[in-house]
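Q: Structure tokens for this one, please.
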Amino acid sequence: MAIQVSDLLDSSLKIGDVFTPIAWGRFAIKEFGLFEYWANGKTVLDPTMGNGSLLESFVVEGIERGYKLEDLPLHNLYGCEKNKEYHQSAVRKFKTRYRADISENLVLSDFMLFGKQRFDIILGNPPWRNFVDLPENYKEELKNYYHMYGLIDNAPSLLLGGSRKDIAALVINKSIIDCLEENSKAV
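A: Here is the predicted structure, written as tokens:
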């Protein structure tokens, strides 16, 4: 099946522009025991990282626990972001606040185009927008992905009443199917 990617590459598209506060990220990290997992060498992916706050939450948590910045495995933090402005903000944040260049780990891309690399921890807060509320050209590009990741029976069903499927469900399904290491954690 050939998938069109023209609008998936539109790096100015904004969908669900709400960034998770560091305090909420730290809460999730503590609540699900993710810090210890990461500090012991496990990899973390935020599939829709926005400005990188969830990834930064690991660093802030480590510093609060008394770790030295150079002892934290920053090289095990990964993110994907479609919006160029947000992506650049995340890269800049890690370079200026933490003197860490992890730009190779922070990918500027629509998550639907992200490969099948495996991670030990997936921590994310994907955009919560119904399919019907997405921009028309982006909806057209996503139809096949909704089918591919088991959210609809076929692409035309999105137009025939199945359009209330949320893009967050799509991101979650792709994360688990394509990116989550077996016996790992997704939050």
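A few notes: Residues 1-9 have pLDDT under 50 and may be disordered. The first helix runs from residue 22 to 31.
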